[in-house]
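Fold this complex.
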Amino acid sequence: MTRAWRSVVALSGGVGGARLMHGLSRELDADAVTMIVNTGDDFEHWGLAISPDLDTVMYTLADLAPEERGWGLADETFHAFDRMAAYGEDAWFQLGDRDLATHLARTRGLRNGESLTAVTARLCRALAVRCRVLPMSDAPCRTMIETADQGVLPFQTWFVRHRAGPAVRAVRFDGAASPAPGVLEAIAGAELVVIGPSNPYVSVDPMLSLPGFREALAARPVVGVSPIVHGEAVKGPLAAMIPSLAARAPTAGAIAAHYGGLLRGFVVEAGDEGTVEGVPTLGTRTRMTTRADSARLAGEVLAFAEAFC
Ligand code: FO1
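Structure:
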């Protein structure tokens, strides 16, 4: 990478997005990158405020996440979880003992009137995460999955409890949320915005649903990274959601088409370039199983973006 980037913004949800953010944090100075993270997956569980995508980004950037699974903490036990199950409490969402500290600290902060932005910054500081990590909004914006045969389900109920089984008719976002402080300003000041290899429907569309967010993106150079490789999702239910929601085959091109005119460029798995129309593509290895993969891919995304920034 030759250009000295000063202000890159990355949008992320889920494990794939967090991995690319990890790579960007290794390729860029900490003060040159701002991570904007999906909060549509957030929910209350056991009376605790849970923000899975914020935690996945924070743990990944802090090198605390399990490299293979991607979410939660690598070094973890589940004694409290097992006890809660023994008490007959909900035991479908695995909260580990060390992970619980994050939910307890966040819940206490929010109850004391701290914003989600402030709590996130405090937890990141404690974990020595030096990049700026912003929730997309400080207000609730709950991703709801309208399914064919189980009614409308909150995202985690559909994704974890029902293992993303029920076919999706539509995705909607409940809440009158607006972008968190600093989010639109970060985008407006960005030399480049990177949309990570996240599920566009449940990880990026929540952000695009916020007032002013899509317009802010449209004014900046944006490059995306495909979450679909040779017709399959690297992780999660995306490959089944595309035919359900877009009535087309699950290709990298379907993802590019979903973002419409927002993309100046699209990084896809080598061999998938032909599925993309109307957007310049870079074909490379987009799977990130190691931290070295993430840094390499981040470097390639930035080098590719130089051509149109
Ligand atoms: N995903 C699962 O499939 N099963 C779980 O039990 C689970 C627990 C969990 C706890 C904390 C956390 O931060 C994430 C967790 N996830 C779990 C992943 C989570 O549902 C997804 O990573 C995001 O919400 C969507 O990418």
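Residues 8-138+175-308 form a domain with the Rossmann fold fold (CATH 3.40.50.10680).
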